[in-house]
């Protein structure tokens, strides 16, 4: 019995019959085997057609009867080849439909598993608790934002003090520093040379110039200029 006969007569394993029919995988395997068998049959028929055509050419008009018989056999082979082409098209269509059906079945099965898993996950979930949780999360986010805004705001300490009072206090401190600097000024020693005698009391400015001249011989020029400024301020 040929493979096609076994297939269309329900040939198969005992396990397939026990299940009430072949599985999609088994049916697809059978269809692929049938396609392979028919493809080989096509190759055989094409070879026979070429051979009969060569025989008809060989005999030609020399042996018309043999040439006609070869052409008749070629026609039968071509008819069988055409039938196989149609059968292959039908089997290919059936195989693709079965593959799509099997794919859809697997997809639906997996979607059913996913739906059951989601249902099992959601069994322990309470929508009221979820709403309360989301509300708590929103409140805590608002609190965190308020804390962040409070931290990022610039501190305004000391704005309650009067600026005029602070300026007056600053001027007093500067004056104290200035007075302290004047107290630290070292006056030059009294010159050992005698002052020229002149009737009457010398003015303060003349006395200052004499002192400055006597210091210029013992200190550097830069220090003398600084001392002169201090002495001039002190004399005034």
TrEMBL record:
Alphabetical list of Pfam families matching this protein: Snf7
Record's compositionally biased regions (Gly residues): 9-21
Family, as annotated: Belongs to the SNF7 family.
Topology of this chain in the membrane: Peripheral membrane protein
Protein known as: CHM4C protein
Coiled-coil ranges from the UniProt annotation: none
Entry GO terms, CC: cytoplasmic side of plasma membrane; cytosol; ESCRT III complex; late endosome membrane; multivesicular body
Keywords: Coiled coil, Cytoplasm, Endosome, Membrane, Protein transport, Transport
Subcellular location(s) of the protein: Cytoplasm, Cytosol; Late endosome membrane
Positions of region (Disordered): 1-25
Gene Ontology biological-process entries: late endosome to vacuole transport via multivesicular body sorting pathway; protein transport; vesicle budding from membrane
Gene3D superfamilies, alphabetized: 6.10.250.1710, ESAT-6-like (1.10.287.1060)
């Amino acid at each position: 019995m040929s493979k096609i006969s076994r297939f269309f007569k329900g040939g198969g394993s005992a396990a397939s019959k026990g299940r009430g029919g072949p599985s999609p995988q088994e049916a697809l395997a059978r269809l692929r085997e049938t396609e392979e068998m028919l493809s080989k049959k096509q190759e055989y028929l094409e070879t026979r057609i070429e051979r009969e055509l060569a025989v008809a050419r060989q005999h030609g008009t020399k042996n018309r009867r043999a040439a006609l018989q070869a052409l008749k056999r070629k026609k039968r082979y071509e008819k069988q080849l055409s039938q196989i082409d149609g059968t292959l098209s039908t089997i290919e269509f059936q195989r693709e439909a079965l593959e799509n059906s099997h794919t859809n079945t697997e997809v639906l099965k997996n979607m059913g598993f996913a739906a059951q898993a989601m249902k099992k996950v959601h069994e322990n979930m309470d929508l009221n608790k979820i709403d309360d949780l989301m509300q708590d999360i929103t409140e805590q986010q608002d609190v965190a934002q308020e804390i962040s805004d409070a931290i990022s705001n610039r501190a305004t300490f000391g704005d309650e003090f009067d600026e005029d009072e602070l300026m007056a206090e600053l001027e007093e401190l500067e004056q104290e520093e200035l007075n302290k600097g004047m107290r630290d000024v070292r006056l030059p020693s009294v010159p050992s040379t005698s002052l020229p005698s002149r009737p009457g009391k010398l003015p303060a400015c003349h006395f200052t110039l004499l002192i400055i001249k006597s210091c210029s011989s013992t200190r550097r020029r830069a220090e003398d200029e600084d001392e002169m400024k201090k002495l001039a301020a002190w004399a005034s």
